[in-house]
Write a structure and sequence with these properties.
Helix content: 25-40%
Largest sheet: 8 strands, mixed
CATH class: Alpha Beta
Number of domains: 1
Number of helices: 10
Strand order of the largest sheet: 8-7-6-5-2-1-9-10
Order of helices and strands: HEHEEEHEEHHEHEHHEEHH
Distance between the termini: 6 Å
């Protein structure tokens, strides 16, 4: 991370904590909900299958920038399916950088070739070893690993959504992240139980067992892009929600924190580690602050 970016985020954090501000710093643009997969845990794919046009997305990016957001995510659906004429996802990342966003990340399922060195991080969904990943996402594991090996940059971070199917594969994903070329780290979430996927949600005891394993992996120097100080809050769902510092824009509609905010009761069962980490950070939790400093300076 550049010194100028670090200073900007530090200043934002200090003002947010001291004055209890609710201004956003992280924004996500949904470029499409079209996806080539039908994963068992996903509730937001192919609802419209619309690929939003370049000028619309550029306008949404500008809207987020004008709100003060400086960390930008492109998300789907599957982001690498986005195209408008000759323009591809790379053009969106370049436009975001030119616009002034300090960190630009992309979320992908990894089934398309990975040639995007301009992104700060490519969060790539790997949901277990071959058997359990394929049980969640279909027969894609080998394709993903080939694409990672052929990637043109080392900016990949695994992104695992832990659920009933793959909860026993955390070690496998950690070791794969540690041992695979072009992979910088691994980041975890717990399954957030949308009404149609509730059967995949973990119990509190299962969450604790998973966090114990992740903590052990950290002790073994596996590159984990999460904050262990947040684990007790994540296990008990005792962190404040929603996260006002994060927003999502999809087809012109801005939502605080995420697309799921309008589903009654779902915030109380949130499984997103970053939501816990950010809300605790901006409430002034000192352990979170110091741990986040070390983690972000290491992996971003």
């Amino acid at each position: 991370m550049k010194i100028s970016s670090f200073l900007h985020f530090a200043g934002f954090g200090i003002k947010t904590i001291l004055f209890r501000k609710k201004d956003p710093i992280l924004g996500t643009v949904i470029v499409t909900d079209k996806c080539n997969l039908h994963c068992k845990h996903c509730s937001v794919n192919n609802i419209t299958a619309i690929i939003h046009p370049y000028e619309q997305i550029k306008g949404e990016m500008q809207q987020l920038f004008d709100m003060g957001i400086r960390i930008l995510f492109f998300c789907g659906g599957e982001t690498f399916m986005w195209r408008d004429g000759d323009r591809t996802l790379r053009d969106l990342v370049k436009e975001a950088k030119a616009m002034g966003f300090l960190i630009v990340n992309v979320v992908t399922n990894g089934t398309f070739p990975i040639d995007l060195p301009e992104a700060d991080l490519i969060l790539l969904s790997l949901d277990g070893d071959r058997e359990r990943h394929n049980a969640v996402r279909g027969d894609t594991y080998d394709t993903i690993m080939k694409n990672i090996a052929a990637a043109t940059s080392d900016n990949i971070c695994f992104y695992m959504a832990v659920n009933k199917i793959n909860k026993d594969a955390i070690r496998d994903v950690c070791h794969t992240a540690r041992d695979t070329k072009n992979v910088r780290a691994v980041s975890f979430n717990f399954h957030t139980p949308y009404p149609d996927t509730r059967e995949l949600a973990l119990t509190r005891d299962e969450k604790k067992e998973c966090c114990d394993i992740i903590r052990q992996m950290m002790k073994e120097k596996v590159p984990v892009f999460n904050l262990k100080s947040a684990f007790p809050y994540i296990i008990d769902n005792s962190f404040p929600t929603p996260c006002h510092q994060c927003v999502v824009i999809e087809n012109g509609k801005v939502s605080v924190c995420g697309r799921c905010i309008e589903i009654p009761g779902l915030c109380d069962e949130c499984g997103y580690f970053f939501v816990a980490e950010y809300t605790l950070l901006f409430r002034g939790n000192l352990r979170i602050i110091f741990e986040m400093l070390g983690t972000y300076l290491k992996y971003v």
